[in-house]
Amino acid sequence: MKNCQILIMLLCLLYGTQVLAQQSCEVKGTAIDSLKKSIGNLTVKFYSENDSLSTFTTANGQFSFAKVTGKEFTINIGGIGYRTLIMQYKIPKDAQQIDLGKLQLKGGAINLDDVVIKAKPIAIKYKQDTVEYDANAFNVQDDDRVTDLLKQLPGIEVDENDNVSAMGKSMTKLRVNGEDFFTNNVKDFISQLPAGIVAKIQVIEDFGDQANFTGIKTGDAQKMLNIVTKPEMDNGQFGNAYLNGGTNKQIGGNLNGNFWKSSKQISVNTGYNIADNGAGLSQSRNAAVNINNKINKTMRFGASYGYTKNDNNSSSTQIVETVNNLGKLNSQLQNTNFASNGGHRLGLTLNRTNKDIYIFGSGSFINNNNETISNSLNNQSGFIRQDFKNNSVNSSSSPNLNASLEISKKFRKNTLSGNFAFSNSSNRSRQDLITNTLYYRPDGGLEKDSLLNRNVYNTGNNKRINLGISYSFLLANDTVSLKSLSFNYNGSANVSQNDLQTFVFNPATQSSTRVDSLSIFTKNNTFNQSLNLNYQQSGKKTRLNMGINISPNVVRNNYPELNATYKNTFFNISPNINYNRNISSSKSVSFSYNGRNSNPSIFQMQPVKNTQNLQNIIIGNPNLESSFNHSFSSNFNYFDKKSNISFQSGLGINTISNEIINNIILIPDTLGAYKQETRFENVNGNYGVNGNYNLNIPFKERKYAISLSGSVGTSRKIAIINNNKTANTGTNFSQNISSSINLKKFTANMGITYSVSANNNNNENFGQFSVPEQTPYNLLLNTGQSFFSTKSFNSNLSASLRLKNFRFSFNGNFSASHNNNIDDNNPFNVNTKTQSLNFGTSGNGNLFKSWNFNYSANKRINKGYNLANINPLIVNLGFGKSFLKNKVLSCSVNVNDLLNEGNNISQRVLGNSIIESRNNQVMRIITFALSYNLSDFGGKSFKLRSN
Predict the structure, then answer these.
(1) Who wins on pLDDT, 442 or 496?
(2) Which residues are 551's β-sheet partners?
(3) What b/e readout covers 917-941, taking b as 16+ CB neighbours within 10 angstroms?
């Protein structure tokens, strides 16, 4: 941490030097007429790259602007009876005052209101906590979606599934014109909204609505996307309806409708689909309603309801190779599974905001029900031979109730805030498990056939109450800055109960017996507190929040059946700082540091064996300590208004004290077979440092552009196997170069990316199997440290041609990846040496504005796999016809996997195990669809091209 503190001090010094380097000066002058007489009460406007100011001439014609910055500026003087005078000037270096002298205006009928100055749009502006993009500065076509516009913006990335990220951070929250927009989910709407309604795109560092009201911005900010619409474009009706059928017994339909009129929003979504996926019928049903509206100028409410139900049959084959200090173990698994899940959700929100008060309340109720029926056969060979037959029936329900209230009140010189939250969640599950284990002698003969029939019941309840209060008062409030001091307290009490009961069924007596050693009732009480003293200072271009945080926490676990109680007390002190400086409208810098607690879960602390998976017994550690996360981040943004070159960079440092990780231990049984135990330990020494950048160089008014982006980082990771620690330090590197052409009738994008990840920790993937119900049955997933490196190369070319009666879009891509062990001399490393090559192309076209077609082809070549048929060529074709005005109605035919070579093969590494999986599904499918699309905004109909 000492090195981190030195780095933070150096960054602060560097940024502080840049801030002090900016100087200001005074600009003054006098307005006169053709007779050399002074003119009073004229409007004088000042424009520069950093400032936009306005004033009036005095009675003697004088005007002045104090403390202006920049390299050059424009003066605009006008009034009734005079022609507007526009003059441009440069600011000499180190100048403290500029006297423009006497500026003569000519008489005439043209006044200031008659003159419209159409300035060249500034593509990027930097404001406090905000990066703003002007849509007029980018190439927007009539049929573009917001997705297409976002892909042009420097520093923003949109993947093939419409997931949006800004400088490496995911962005999920959406607002339009600063207000909530339906579900507020970015992914739900960026492909439905036309780019033609957008005036500006804003990427905001969001600390929450209450923080925006009070100005107290602490903690981690989330990236938020705000769309500012053009005038009269804040209303519309959009959505779609479709019906489809297919050769795999597929029948379905969906209706999505959205009504939007400024702050009034109503959406309806419902659908039903059924299909045979090769393992059986799968069904999905959903229905949802969402309403947002203003009650009056200061109050708005929202209500939502949703229902989902999914039934799915699946069948899969797996080959698993595990390496440990005993040798190599090979497993071949056949799995069939039926899963049914669904539930209801209801949500309500109410918000009132004016200049003096902020109130936000919300409530939600969610109830989910799940049922699974699984059958598996596992044949194991290697240093041991044993077979497993498993049958399980699981059912569970989990109702959840949440309520919260936030209140802030501004007084003359102080602000009082409070927040309250309550949640109550329950879970009830039952598992009927039949496990048949076959043990073999070294000569291959059957030694024992063991059959175990268990019933496992688990009920739990968790109640949580949060209470917070904040008081801030003004220290100073002048024309330069606002300074305040705040005291904050947050406390939360969490009460959990969990009852685990295990019974073994005896077929001879047809009765069940409770197993005391595998049953336990647990009570968990957690009390977290946070005391914070925070100083805030904000001005026109600068915002600073800094303070100190004290966090005492108590965790108490009680096990009545064991007559045991464990109590752990944690105490942490950490500073927090958040600094943002707009050096100019085209240059900004920011950095922040904060720390937060994370307590171990009741599951990780429970000291009783959980044997729901006999091959992976899980035992908690009641002596676990709370982990504490230290996080530092900084950003620098620059945009040159003349050349339109933009540069964005970021640095992140993260380290966790007392991080909780798995300790995997192999244990032999009396028949020569082995089981593994998963325990939990605290470790120190893990850290990560990562930096990234994006450079965009446009030409010819953004018709052409070249972009460079990349990242570099280093990290240290620790894991424990058989009580032995292993660690690795590695470097990650990625570099991308891309170019674009944006003409009226032709666009193209080309990109190449090369990346090296030299510190992949297999143990990270095991987190998804840390809960017993999720662990693959009878797999010795020895998650010891088996670090491996990955090298990948990706290239992509996309182009679009737009003619009057013909439009065509093309995409081609090539990718290659190679995994390799970092230490080939480590006998416990699995063979991660795999190679993958992928060639792909896709395209779609439109002829005479009504006929359309699409295609895609993908060839994958893999090496290093054990499963057969792993190099498929997937070809998909489709064509359709559009009807009615604006072509809103269309019918289509699509063929998926024309050559029937799909196999759904994948590979993943879990610790010292490598798992290859193949899902058995119907791939060749012919579907027929009829769809109706609506996209009307501001009284204008938009015909959006196909995604």
Answers:
(1) 496
(2) 572
(3) bbbbbbbebbbebebebbbebeeee
